[in-house]
Design goal:
Layout: H1 5-14, E1 21-26, E2 29-34, E3 37-43, E4 46-50, H2 56-60, E5 65-67, E6 78-81, H3 89-104
Antiparallel strand pairs: 1-2, 2-3, 3-4, 4-6, 5-6
């Protein structure tokens, strides 16, 4: 599945000053990770944000947010935000901050060792 390249560029701009940032193709789209922990991503033209279980209910109460049900079951702590919810740069930045706040609360992940081909 393709993802919205324009939205990806806007997210990169919002995350420009975050140390430990990386990108990974996940969920059929693009995910952004801080120190190995996913904070947000893009599936199609929809932003997904990892807000964590404690902020989940409050995040779902925000306009244009809904449960992330990628697998057919809601993933608690993950939200989708419709394009109208991130139309402005300030709205996008607010959602990205929610994701980075949760990712920053987690211990950094150690890079996985790659298997050597013999």
């Amino acid at each position: 599945m393709a993802y919205d390249e324009t939205l990806a560029a806007r997210v990169r701009t919002a995350l420009a000053n975050e140390p430990g940032l990386s990108e990974k193709h996940m969920f059929g789209g693009l995910s952004f990770l801080l120190n190995g922990n996913m904070c947000c991503g893009i599936v199609g033209n929809t932003l997904m944000v990892r807000v964590g279980p404690e902020a989940y209910t409050a995040a779902l109460a925000k306009p244009h947010a809904r449960e992330m049900d990628f697998t057919g079951r809601p993933l608690r702590g993950m939200t989708y935000v419709a394009p109208d919810g991130v139309h402005t740069d300030s709205a996008l930045a607010a959602w990205v901050r929610r994701g980075t706040a949760f990712a920053a609360s987690l211990p950094p992940k150690k890079p996985k060792k790659r298997k050597r081909k013999t």
